[in-house]
Amino acid sequence: MTIGIGGAGSKLASLMDVDKATIVNVSQSELNKTAAQNKILAVAHSTRGQFKGAGKNPNVGKTAYISINEEIYTVIKGDIVFTSTGGGTGNGITSVMLEKIASQEAVQQNDKTMFSFILPYVNRESSEYVENTIDFLLGPASKGIDSGNTGNIMLFSNKLKFEGRIAEHDYNTMIVSSLKNFMVIPTKGDELELLDGHIDHEDFGVYCSKPYFNHFSQFEYTPDKPFAELLQENFNALLLPPEETIEAMFLLEVPSKDQTAYFYNILDYFADDDVKPHYGVVLNPNIEKPLLTMSLLYSRKPKELVDDFKQMADLMTRKKLKKSINQFVKLEERKMDIDTEVRKIEESSEQTGNSVLDVLKRLKKLR
Ligand SMILES: Nc1nc2c(ncn2[C@@H]2O[C@H](COP(=O)(O)OP(=O)(O)OP(=O)(O)O)[C@@H](O)[C@H]2O)c(=O)[nH]1
Ligand SMILES: [Mg+2]
Asked: Which of 48, 59, 118, 177 to probe ligand 1 with, by most ligand atoms within 8 A of CB?
């Protein structure tokens, strides 16, 4: 079963699993818009109508979590949760959920939940989405991962959506098909003639229950190119690029049995880093060229990602600060150079180790 929380999460869950998806929102009208088997309304404020969203405020989602705590916690066990990290509903509800998961002593392998996060594209999306994302990644997401109690985490990004000017529904379809290509690995192992290795449902379940980031992609395999190059060229543009691989899994489908031995090339590539992938090679007479479905697990914290987000957030804050100084200070009288003022604040924040963003928050220049 698939669970979608908030606007983006619900649309993706519904596409992934139209027959059995559960969607959660604080807004009845948003719930009405998306088809799903099971709909859960989280109550944010008892006195307010249930037709508004969280208005990009994760605290609304966090408060609303209490109303669905028991129900949702049972529903997500062993399943996949989709949520964006930028909005208020998905971020807020999932934050509390992750804190709760992190506080458990140990979660059994079968009960581990996989998470698909949809990250905003910094260059085009609002600063609230970006700030919420930074808080989410550094806080509850990190806690959840560090506890070892989550399953795989998929970091989808809206970068390609904006850069490629792709319509929302089409982009969601791309995300879902790419995830399905990975999830179908053990079923293909059942249905197609096995030529070497094997990934059964149990192996696959164990792999998915590991608390690491999962980067998967699917591409034509050719022995003509070094595998390192081929893999690099075929990273999944819907996901953030992976860091150093600690575990891997692949399914190689070949149209002809004499291509079976290709898989040794892939094992050789990983052996350099002492990674021994789980693999299966199957005969698929319906394809023309060998097809590889590859998954890489990596554990490093997405620090670069957060740094990226922070840099952009600081840049936006600098712009806001310029605007606000322009508004409130009579430049003619004080002959103040805005750039110097901004720099001063930046320098003082560097000395104290705080970002411009933090300093401004303290100065109440921001929300
Ligand atoms: N890929 C994709 N991203 C989406 C979609 N809908 C919203 N987003 C992104 O998700 C973020 C906004 O989060 P939503 O899921 O709309 O927000 P929410 O969780 O419902 O929270 P509130 O609306 O604030 O109550 C932004 O980064 C949007 O670009 C979608 O259908 N597909
Ligand atoms: Mg919403």
From this structure: 118
